Amino acid sequence: MSTATKVIIELLLDSGMRIGECLAIQMSDIDLLKNCIVLPWENTKGKKTRTVFFQQRVRKSLRLWIRHKGQLYRVNTCSLHAQSRTQRQWL
Asked: Residue 65: CB partners within 8 Å, gap ≥ 6?
């Protein structure tokens, strides 16, 4: 199982968010200090901004994934700049 898949499953189970909400998360939506993710109204079923929380163990997985993504970003920076915002989501 890939790291991304593991993080998605952990977030879905721990926070109660929907798969579409999870897949639409941007890095700016994640607050690792408060262990929460702000889901913008555009991405929620009820069209209301909401905040979901996650436990410390999920935070650890998220931090590892973000660190991993940062390394990938530095390696592939030229190709990433050509992608649209929807393609540069956190996963």
From this structure: 3, 4, 7
